[in-house]
Amino acid sequence: MLVPEPFRYRITDFDREVFRLFVPPDHPLVAAEREIDWEELRQTLGTFYTRDKGQPAIDPVRMLKLEFLRYWRNLSDRQVMERTKTDLAFRYFLQVGHTFRPPNFSSLSYFRARLGEDGFRQVFDRLVAQARRAGLVKDRLRLKDASHVVASIAVPTTLTLVAQIRDRLLTAIEPFDAEWVDGQRIEVNLLRERTKSQADEARLAARVTHLRELIAWAEQLPVPVDLETNAATGAAWQKFQETLALALKILRDRDQPKAGRKTLSVSDPEARRGKHGEFYDGYLTDILMDADSEIITQINVLEAGGDEARDAVDLVSAEQAAHENQIEGLSIDGAGFHGEMLRELEGEAAAEGDPGLGVTVYVPPKAEPANDRFKSADFTLNKDGTGVTCPAGQTSQYCQHDTGRNAMIYRFTRQTCDNCPLAQRCVAKLKTGAFGRSVSKNDYETEYQRARERAKTDEFASVRREHPAVERKLNELLNHHGGRRARYWGRAKVHIQHLMTGFVVNTKRILTLLAALRAEPKAISTATT
Fold it and tell me: What is the pTM of this model?
């Protein structure tokens, strides 16, 4: 229940004198308390509390400040509460007197669960909005980049993974048929004894067979009659359904080893294996940064190997929806040379074209094949789109759309190409194969060509010189504030971690920029006297 309790946080004259004597006025936490409008955030936080149910809640603004202090100093929940007892700068920042006793460290877990991913995203956006009102954030250019986050897991062998999900599934079923589960646990012990002298492959096969039998039985488990009326039963049933889905996913991974996106751990089933220089297990953090202020305007967390091009659209859309602004330009690395992304951000160049999100994209184009043969651009597309004309004036006879490659494939007959005087400059292997030259026209050919032409301009070179700033910002986020390693299990919780880390990094930048703005008039005055 959200009710004011001023007596809990009362600051006496004694407290003010202690703060005056022992907390330096130039301490960064003093500046953070003064410059950030924490009361404005109260309205956002309040929407996640009830006003007439439960015990009186600890002030949500102070809870947010405790979260802030955790990421400011890379502390755990327990450590930040212990330090709050003795650190006067912490107590000044929290605006509490000597009678205040920090709550149990577990209250921070409840606070994070209360706000969830959406709540922390709103808090992050409100801080960016404050920076916008102060005139710090511009809309000229956004810099986008991503880097890896290592999951807090130990990746087990397949044998161990199957055993772990089996045990979890039995635990999830236990509330609904404890007697059957007891029998299956006896079977697990017998299975372990029967196979302990066998090779790992045979032991794995036996455990997989047993897991399949468990899943087959679990899928027939009847829905509890009190599912809707009993909260405990509902929670247990949901846990069972989630565990069953995870067990099925682990079996599919084993049956389809080349499918990708394999589950690595039952503790963090959303962590994936990706490659960022080297292979890693975890997630991908993706940020959008204002090039002028170096303030992060959006943060998202994807699974390892996530679609950065798709996320670029999501990040831009999220910022423009949150602040009702219009971003002019976006600088992105090679992952952004992606036709669908370019069309959604810049719009379609057709007469009836979609204006898209109205963002000009600066992206290094992929290198074209280095050979002397005619390229796709040398073949002219017919008006109806059913054929292309080659440099020798011949027309293709066959076309088919390749959905996987987002392209239309045009083919010339073997006879046409064999008799062509320009065949040496066109066909890789003369007089072989069922067809002559094949030409691929991408659905996003216009967008790719526009990006290639833009890459030749001085404006592009100037923008790309600014791009390393976002790499430095990622370094600060991940390496200076502990974001490189996930503190939690699950993509949503890792996203909360990075939203709060970004909140801290942005606060530091806002304080620096405001201090510089206030110093400018003094510097000018000194120079003129």
Answer: 0.87
